[in-house]
Design a protein that fits this description.
Blueprint lengths: L2 H25 L5 E2 L3 E4 L5 E3 L2 E2 L6 E6 L3 E3 L4 E3 L8 E9 L2 E11 L7 E4 L1 E3 L3 E6 L11 E6 L3 E3 L6 E2 L10 E6 L5 E6 L2 E3 L2 E9 L18 E6 L17 E4 L6 E7 L2 E8 L4 E3 L21 E4 L2 E3 L3 E3 L21 E11 L9 H8 L1
Parallel strand pairs: 2-9, 11-18, 19-28
Antiparallel strand pairs: 1-4, 3-7, 5-6, 5-8, 8-9, 10-12, 12-15, 13-14, 13-16, 16-17, 19-22, 20-21, 20-23, 23-26, 23-27, 24-28, 25-26
The chain binds calcium ion (CA) (4 copies).
One calcium ion binds next to loops.
């Protein structure tokens, strides 16, 4: 054997040793397993504790947990979690002679309640916008939302956006069900308030100087019948055309001559009065066109319609869009933006000069 062949044998032997060492090293790699350190979740949750391991096929897994929990699956499945099953879960994996373990703590989560807030008290015409107002970390946001409510309402949005209508069919209990990544299912319920916020008023008065304005010394006329109509807005029709029969009827206060139609919804209305005998709308026939919709208080807004019937033109009401200087009891910064108390009627009592057309009044008075 020369030196050269000796070197070749050594080299080959060294190569084989390295190959053997390398193969042995790979076969003997340390078995490992890991699970999430902590799982925060809720009672009733369904979830898995996922195990990550380098174990090959044939490895044996074994779980032990609180209150006698055991499993031989790779991942622990837990359904309908109860308080006595919160605690430490230990997983063991065996592969040949190697064993590895890992533990996970299952504990109560901050996500235990949902609270419905948002626009929970609205006027008819506004949208109900309900949502969960509990503050949560970005990684604790619900995966899904499911709302149910009156009028067969359902939604999977994070918040509701429901227009409200005069028939109040949206009023009732709303329930939100949230599901979370950690298996939590949280519910909350609320019955919102929907109010007909608007009102119209408020005075029929004896406009003694016939200037269509309420002046000092002029007083209200009591027991006058006042009717409220929805207005019919249509090209070609007069601006004082009702859309159907009166929706409300009242009398002016016997002492003050005041009236009020509360609990109205946004829309267009007409007010009508039946003036006492001998009275006509004040301001005279040469008065400028009467606009009841300009939020001016204490001016006459009525024009003769038929006989003693006096009507306004249409008035538009809008939530939080009505005047605050109209004599509200809370006049000032807190005045009621939902009341329009500027729809007033000045009446002028017909005096009877010596004109033929007044003779019936004279005759009546003489009785
Ligand atoms: Ca006057
Ligand atoms: Ca007001
Ligand atoms: Ca008024
Ligand atoms: Ca007015």
């Amino acid at each position: 054997m020369n030196n050269s062949s000796h070197f070749s044998v050594v080299k080959t032997a060294f190569y084989c040793f390295c190959l053997l060492f390398s193969t042995t090293f790979q076969t003997k790699a340390q078995l490992n397993i890991s699970v999430k350190d902590t799982i925060a979740t809720c009672e009733g949750a369904n979830f898995k504790i996922i195990a990550s391991s380098n174990a090959g096929a044939g490895a044996i897994f074994s779980w032990q947990g609180p209150n006698g929990y055991t499993s031989v699956e790779k991942d622990a499945s837990i359904t309908n979690l109860t308080k006595d099953r919160m605690g430490v879960y230990t997983v063991t994996v065996s592969a040949g002679v190697q064993i590895a373990t890992a533990t996970s703590l299952v504990k109560p989560n901050a996500i235990e309640v949902a609270v419905i807030g948002g626009f929970t008290s609205v006027c008819v015409g506004e949208n109900l916008r309900l949502r969960d107002i509990v503050l949560r970390e970005p990684n604790e946001q619900p995966l899904t939302y499911f709302w149910t409510g009156p009028d067969n309402y359902t939604s999977t949005a994070s918040r509701t956006d429901i227009p409200t209508t005069e028939d109040l069919r949206q009023v009732g209990e709303y329930t939100l069900t949230e599901t979370y990544e950690n298996g939590c299912v949280v519910k909350a319920s609320l019955t919102p308030t929907v109010t007909k916020c608007l009102s119209i008023g408020d005075l029929v008065w004896d406009d003694k100087n016939n200037n269509a304005l309420l002046d000092t010394g002029e007083t209200g006329i009591g027991n006058v019948t006042v009717k409220l109509y929805k207005a019919k807005l249509q090209a070609g029709l007069p601006s004082n055309t009702p859309d159907g029969n009166a929706i409300k009827t009242t009398l002016t206060d016997p002492l003050t001559g005041k009236y009020l139609f509360p609990e109205l919804v946004p829309g267009f209305y007409i007010v009508e009065i039946e003036a006492p005998a001998d009275y006509k709308p004040s301001g005279g026939s040469n008065a400028p066109p009467i606009n009841p919709n300009n939020d001016v208080n204490n001016d006459n807004n009525g024009t003769a319609f038929q006989g003693q019937i006096i009507r306004t033109n249409f008035i538009e009401l809008a939530n939080f869009g009505e005047p605050q200087n109209d004599g509200d009891t809370t006049n000032g910064t807190n005045a009621d933006k939902n009341s329009n108390l500027t729809i007033d009627f000045g009446l002028f009592k017909v005096e009877c000069p010596a004109e033929p057309k007044c003779i019936p009044f004279v005759a009546k008075k003489s009785n």
